[in-house]
Amino acid sequence: TKMAGDSMFLDVETDGSEKSEEMEIVVNVGGVRQVFYGDNLNQYPETRLAELINCLSGGYDSIFSLCDDYDPGKREFYFDRDPDAFKCIIDVYYFGEIHMKKGICPICFKNEMEFWKVDLKFLDDCCKTHLSEKKEELEEIARRVQLILDDLGVDASESRWKRCQKCIWKFLEKPESSYPARVIAVLSFLFILISSVVMCVGTIPDLQVVDAEGNRMEHPTLDSIETACIGWFTMEYVLRLISSPNKLHFAFSFMNIVDVLAILPFYVSLTLTHLGAKLMELSNVQQAVQALRIMRIARIFKLARHSSGLQTLTYALKRSFKELGLLLMYLAVGIFVFSALGYTMEQGHPETLFKSIPQSFWWAIITMTTVGYGDIYPKTTLGKLNAAISFLCGVIAIALPIHPIINNFVRYYNKQRVLETAAKHELELMELNSAEGKATGSKSELEDLSREGKEGPFYSSRLKVSHSDTFIHLLSEDKHYRTRLQSCK
């Protein structure tokens, strides 16, 4: 039977009168039939569809290396792939570029393009943006999963100091790792609040004391509380620096620079108070100490380390530089125009408060931003009309960029929650797969598996990668292709 089939196959496929450019093939992808001609497919000979034309003379082995099934009578090739993605990919043969439809996962679409051997350069730039965003999300999920696995894994070959260093780092940097770590995080947060409150309360004249020279200074009790807070901050920073796996990156991190700026003024002012008097005049020392005390406001930024909301706000502002730049440009143009008009219109009044255009800038700023101190105001009818117009223009200019900035904040906040949930989902599936057929798995079992050794990126050969809807290629050396039966969330 096989020989008869082969002979029929060869009779049909080896007709010498038919040229490859004029050949017609039928491709069935997931139940959707498409007819192609050789002249279209040969434009890109390295693609899988173009190879189908040249594989007909190679027998069944050559054909089935390219497709899932083949009907020689109908000359129809069968593929168990995503038909929606395939409809987008075949546009390259007709238009020379590819666009993804909405609702298709970019990573799955990339895998489909790799299966059909179509280069990514044919993907339109707008679709490449979605693909890069999805890659960044998967990289972030992989990084979070790897960090959790690193915390679970303990390498027996490491020295006791290395293990102790990792424990200290996890204890201070990852409050979610244990209950004592959460207690330390809460204490650090309370010390920041107490230090900030003491700094503010110390400026109240009724709570200050007078020294021997008649100068006012902070109450000794408040000074002792601040010293205790600085001691806590110093100990925390030193321990984090010692236990840091990358000390250079730690030292130049923005939040760690803020920590140094919050601690350093205390020690510099203490040094100037005890040693500076011998090198310079006492008045100069006191001025330097006062200037350094102002730098203590930097410690309020330490709250960003313990507040995800502040971190999200910072990221949203970074992503909104374009909108903020437009806002500043609108306000700058409006300030210049309305201040010049206000100065010109108010020159006819004998008691005008607009002495010059630069002085009018201040009036335009407080008017357009709806502050309105009232220290400078127009007195003529035209000046008041100009002030009303500037006020309305300021409200519009400020309101326009607010919506994109809020969108950036909400998008980043929701994205962080989704990534956190996806990372936990991957860990749960990895734990279930590592049970080797068991229906459930526990966290303790995952910890035991992770301690068996570091044979792979998961520290254990038994800890298998997950094949979930958010499959992460970065966590596996093997390459997996999705079929149309698998979806991606």
Fill in the keyword field for this structure.
21 helices, 6 strands, two-stranded antiparallel sheet, Potassium Channel Kv1.1, Chain A, 60% helix, flat, disordered N terminus, Four Helix Bundle (Hemerythrin (Met), subunit A), Helix Hairpins, mainly alpha, 489 residues, disordered C terminus
Ordered list of secondary-structure elements with their pairings:
Layout: H1 2-13, E1 24-29, E2 32-37, H2 38-41, H3 48-54, H4 59-64, E3 69-71, E4 76-79, H5 83-89, H6 92-95, H7 106-115, H8 125-152, H9 160-173, H10 179-201, E5 209-210, E6 216-217, H11 220-243, H12 247-251, H13 254-275, H14 282-294, H15 303-306, H16 308-319, H17 321-346, H18 357-368, H19 381-399, H20 402-434, H21 443-450
Parallel strand pairs: 1-4
Antiparallel strand pairs: 1-2, 3-4, 5-6
Helix pairs in contact: 8-20, 9-10, 9-11, 10-11, 11-13, 13-14, 16-20, 17-18, 17-19
Describe the structure.
With 489 residues, this protein is mainly α. The chain has 3 domains: 24-124, Potassium Channel Kv1.1, Chain A (2-Layer Sandwich), CATH 3.30.710.10; 163-306, Up-down Bundle (Four Helix Bundle (Hemerythrin (Met), subunit A)); 311-430, Helix Hairpins. 60% of the residues lie in helices and 5% in strands. The protein has 21 helices and 6 strands. The strands form 2 sheets. A 4-stranded mixed β-sheet has the order 2-1-4-3. A hairpin with a 2-residue loop joins strand 1 and strand 2 (32-37). Helix 13 packs antiparallel against helix 14 and helix 17 (321-346) packs antiparallel against helix 19. The longest helix has 33 residues, at 402-434. The protein is flat. Residues 1-18 and 437-489 have low confidence and may be disordered.
